[in-house]
Amino acid sequence: MLNFTGSPEQCLAALDHLRNSLRSINLTVNTSKCTFTYFHSETQALDMSVVTQLEEQSIPIFTESFELIGAVIGKDNEATKSALDNSRAKWRLEQDALFTRLEYLTSQTQKLVLQRLGASAINYRLRAMPPSVTENLARITDDRVLVQAAGAIGIPNLLAESNVPMHNRAIQEIQAPLSKGGFGLISTQLIAPAAYLASIHNSLTRAPTFTVASLQSPRYDPGSLLAFNINDSITRIRSRESSISDSIDPTLTTPPSLLPHDPATFFHHFANLRLPNVQQALSQRTQNLQLLARLNAAKRSKGSQDQARLLSLQAKHSSRWLQVVPTTTESRLTDTQYYWASRLRLGLNVPYSVDNSDCPSCGETNALCNDSWHALSCLTHRSREVTDRHNFVVDAIERHYRMAGVRTWKEPTKQGKRDNSRPDLKAFEPVGTLLTDVSVTHPLAPSNLAKASKSTLACAESRAQIKLPNTARWQKTKMLLSSHSLVRPLEVFTN
Ligand SMILES: [Zn+2]
Fold first, then answer.
1. Is residue 69 part of a domain?
2. Which among 80, 82, 34, 74 is positioned nearest to 58, based on CA atoms?
3. Measured in angstroms, how far is the CA atom of residue 361 from the centroid of ligand 1?
């Protein structure tokens, strides 16, 4: 694609020049695929000779807006929005192609695709057009992603009843980044103003057309459309952050604002901040505030497990299972497994019979009503399902050791003077022998709740400490085997 920019006469002259140059190599210009855009007809009508030349070559004249590689460029925001909304059938069709295909994938694969939606055409449009223009597109995209997510977690009316507190909380967590305990299905409406500001900043600093001018002084006047769009984007981010801040404990330290005071200082503000990625930095600040607000709300709801759950989700790698590409049988989750794991992560109850909420294993009265995840911590499961869960983790570690070509010995004997000092796994790594002991903790178990509500990984770390006397003994034994051996208590926690 080739674009000429200049006065109508200059553009026609450039087209003539191109046509003549192409003729020498036996190529022609297909003018039926050319367009001519002129946004100034109201102030200065096109010269009739230009109109005649364009008509003779069958080149249509656009006076309101035109499409350029998927984005719309209009003479003002109204014209751009109107053209984008009119082409809704087109981008809905694009989205239909994606969402229709998703139906054929498992929940696990669907979410992996949706996590990467931010890197697709939608993100490009958010960067190329201001948020006031893309708001319909962004809202519809968010809604479709949420409907898809709702199906996998078993709340079909999640969006229709988004005002229900539990639904509202689930939506916030689904749209939160993986690193902040969410599902990484980032809200397109949230990133729209940040994406637009970042794109303007990048254009002003990196595009040769703007670089020289912008270094001297920003190449826009306060009354221009660009200044209006920058101001609108700043206002959108500021008002969203301000409404989130209202629900954060005022004694907490919040990250400083990254926004410029006004459009006039926009360029120099970001130039001075030297942020490696403006869009990411702006979005992350909003997401950090949202996390603080969620933690604050969880802290206020006495007796709930939310605080312990949200803190547990802040542990590094707690979202790893949501990023695993299902390429092998071991890394594949069925839709039912995904449903259970998602609900556990979101702190949603699992179905149980209201008529009989007593635990079928230990018989505790109303155990399932008080904690629908009681099965994860039921004491009678200790030598049954809990042991199976522990063994599955050991098996998985051993399998991956073997895939890496490391020889292993499960439950090796004679590692210490007493039998109970036997570790779960011994691996002969190139750097030395590694003894591993696995312990699985459930931070939301009634006995762990108080500890887990204090800090991330509090339960797992305290469990690892309990293991230390044994590991110290192994260390002595193993010193005889190799001076490079390591002892590692491995803690796995649910969530
Ligand atoms: Zn029980």
1. no
2. 34
3. 5
